[in-house]
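Objective 1b. Sequence-to-structure analysis of 3-oxoacid CoA-transferase subunit A.
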Amino acid sequence: MIRKKYDTMEQAVADIHDGSTLLVGGFGGSGLPSKLIAALVEQGARDLTVVSNNIGAVSDGVAALISNNQVRKIICSFPVGPHANDLIDRLANGTIELEIVPQGTLAERIRAGGAGIPAFYTPTGAHTELSEGKETREFDGRVHILESAIKGDYAFIKAHRADRYGNLVFRKTQRNFNPVMATAAQVTIAEVSEIVELGDIDPESVVTPCIFVHRLVQDDAPHGEVFANE
């Protein structure tokens, strides 16, 4: 396995191109890969489609990308918060597109993307505006709507510890959307608090195996050192 070491965190996001689909882990501030997002704000890729449970505050999270005019479309469950007025203005003038997805459906669409399942039926959202324009089918007397899988070009995730191969351990509520997003992207970049040697992590504690992780960022490293599996 070829390994590359980057001198700065910014280099880990340098190849993210305009028009990319980006999966961003986290639930509120828990498990949010905020330093990777900050690096992408500086990098400046535009016309992004961003998939995240929620948007965050104006200066943090996905909202920072929106405020910097980098997002073309946002797919999320919870778009309200301190940034709401800015988002409403952008929706009104057509500079951003918003797709609201029920939280469980969002998680399953991402999981399906990682598992190679193109679509699935769910009763969630049936008979509401969320079902408009979608195929429906009845199962056991209930109407279900067809939801398509979500896959990303890149995923930003946050974990507590990794070995240098990229096996990940999450701390408590960091284990939200992060593990499932790691499986559904072409390139997964993990922001972690600690990188340890091989054998220092009990295999039974590994949540996300290294096969899904392409780059590691140690968020408290003096120079934002980045290791990558390419």
